[in-house]
Design goal:
Blueprint: H1 2-22, H2 28-67, E1 94-99, E2 105-114, H3 115-126, E3 130-132, E4 140-149, H4 150-157, E5 160-168, E6 176-183, H5 217-224, E7 228-233, E8 236-245, H6 246-257, E9 261-263, E10 270-278, H7 280-287, E11 291-298, E12 303-311
Parallel strand pairs: 3-6, 9-12
Antiparallel strand pairs: 1-2, 2-4, 5-6, 5-11, 7-8, 8-10, 11-12
Amino acid sequence: MTEFFNRVSFTPTKDAVVVLDQHCSGKRDKGIKRLKRTGFYHYAMGMTLVVLVCLASQTTVLAQKTATPATPESEPKHAPSKPADSKPVPERSFVLRVNPRPVLNISLKADKAKMSEVAQALSKHLKVPVFLGPERQNESISIEFSELMLEPALRLMSPTVYVDYEVDTGSMAPPKALGIYFYDTNQGEPPLTAVVRGSTQSLLVEGNTEDGEPETDGDKKKAEEEPLRVSYLNNNLTVKAKKQPLPLVLLKIGEELGIPVDIQDQNISIVDTEISKLPVEDVVRQLSPNIRLFIRADLTRAEKRALRMVLAEPAKATQQNP
């Protein structure tokens, strides 16, 4: 810094003295003033340079401190890693779609999916209980089909399938599924009261219960002339009723089918009809709109059997305000 001041201050002063020696004495005062101005100018410039140098030095030091790499203690800590035993959520191994309209249809794509999970999803969509056999609970299923109706779809999902339905003869809607059974091959049929329950049963009491089948032509002709005849053969029902009470006709059908019949409607309606060799569902639809027929479909054997029949009270018409 001393060398800097010597260089800045004394060089101009020497020049000013030489100038004073060469000029006349009359111009001494003017030279002195010029000397003073020159010295003050160089002094001010020197101080400015000093301040700038100091500021530049300080800035350099700050920049060096900023650029200094952080010590190990000041390094940011890494985010904690996930535990070693953390497992990603597995993707679902099947896609199930149930479309209720316009006709109930099912689509399923499964790749080694657990049958228990597929059955649970199906039960949720249909709002119907689904039962699995012991072996089926631990099985996997790989299958793909699209927009199949209920029974064809169920047949593809299991080698043995049963479905319990409720038929409302007063509605044009298809039978309502009440329970689905994906059973093992050799498991046998589900209990008859698994989902269809009822404790009330009406009884039919008739005379001549020990007469047996007619043997002679005269007995057969007499039997054919009876006002009420019911027969069930090869899964087809035949009913011939001549002005007979409906409860009596239904009780006779129940006796022939071997199922309980619950008569809840106390109003006696008269039946005068002749129906020959039709499925039970079609027969009861023709008899009354107030019948609830419960049936079981064996999809493996393509067979149906009646489980229970109820003659319900007619629905009361809703009164409208005038």
